[in-house]
Automatic annotation (TrEMBL):
Coiled-coil region list: 222-270
Domain annotation Single cache: ranges: 43-168
Topology with respect to the bilayer: Multi-pass membrane protein
Key words, A-Z: Cell membrane, Coiled coil, Membrane, Transmembrane, Transmembrane helix
Main location: membrane
A Gene Ontology cellular-component term: plasma membrane
This protein's name: Single cache domain-containing protein
Transmembrane segments: 12-30, 185-203
InterPro entries hit by this protein: sCache_3, Sensor-like_sf
Location of this chain's protein in the cell: Cell membrane
Length: 296
């Protein structure tokens, strides 16, 4: 009974798993459960590329603006004005380029009307401060989304001015629409799943029947082996008892032999003492006769 119950439970598990797989397949084919590869990676790469270009442009201007910043006002304004104009003309995504003194006075700008005014940070921007460069993503009603890249004009360790370059931000790609799948393919997937369930159920029913018989044979074989093992254990125990009995008899014989040996040794000692006494008496008699013979 336990074998049949296990077979039934196994079939139920298989059928349930297959049905879940069929419905999951149909769900995925509708596109609702599909996972699209994000295109944000490409967008992030574009953002980094734009910011790096902005840093390169601002860094170039700050490097070659040192000498003009130290020159007279006329030469300074002319050279720096040409530099910011060229930066915007040669780069279509550049929105503006501004050069300021250490105190924030605008000495060059792509917007000629801003020259001579005090520079004010764009809305939401952070000051460059002690940093040598800073790239920020900003947004305004006039420019939309853009990047502001600032670089310090450094004379050794001293900052004598700043460069600000604005670049257009790349457009973020719209989310991709989920693919649509016709109902025909969903129906085909469902039918194939049902057919597969019945086919596997028939196969599993035929395959599990002999398995129970094999388990019974294995159980009977195990019982026989257990019986043989118990018989062997009894024989081993009997052999051990026989060996102990023989060992006890041998010890008794050894003790008896020792007693006999002791008795023989004692008898030999007695006989030796008797022989010594007899010999001593005869010797004394001979000595007495010798003395009498001398006296004669």
């Amino acid at each position: 009974m336990s074998g049949e119950r296990n077979v039934m439970v196994g079939n139920l598990v298989r059928y349930g798993g297959l049905m879940v797989g069929v419905f999951l397949l149909a769900f995925l084919m509708t596109g609702k459960g599909s996972v699209k590869a994000p295109e944000s990676n490409q967008y992030e790469s574009m953002v980094q590329e734009r910011q790096q270009r902005g840093k390169a442009i601002a860094g170039y201007i700050s490097k070659y603006a040192i000498d003009p910043m130290l020159a007279g006002a006329d030469e300074r304004d002319m050279v720096l004005g040409a530099m910011v104009s060229a930066a915007k003309a040669k780069n279509k995504d550049v929105l503006y380029a501004t050069i300021t003194t250490k105190k924030g006075l605008i000495v060059a700008d792509t917007d000629k009307g801003a020259i001579g005014k005090t520079y004010s940070l764009p809305e939401g921007a952070k000051p460059l401060g002690v940093k040598t460069e800073l790239a920020q993503t900003l947004k305004s009603a006039k420019l939309g989304d853009y990047y502001d890249v600032a670089a310090g004009i450094m004379l050794g360790e001293t900052k004598i001015g700043e460069v600000h370059v604005g670049l257009k931000a790349g457009e973020e790609p719209p989310p991709a629409a989920a693919p649509s799948v016709s109902k025909k393919w969903i129906l085909i997937a469902f039918v194939l799943g049902v057919v597969g369930v019945f086919a596997i159920s028939m196969f599993s029913h035929g395959a599990t029947a002999p398995a129970s018989g094999v388990s019974v044979v294995n159980a009977s074989t195990i019982e026989e082996l257990k019986g043989e093992e118990e018989t062997l254990m009894k024989r081993v125990a009997d052999a051990k008892r026989d060996e102990e009995s023989r060992r006890e008899k041998l010890e008794a014989l050894k003790r008896e032999l020792g007693d006999i040996t002791t008795q023989v040794q004692a008898r030999q000692n007695e006989l030796a003492q008797m022989g010594t006494i007899s010999t001593t008496g005869v010797g004394e008699g001979l000595d007495a006769l010798r003395k009498e013979a001398k006296n004669l």
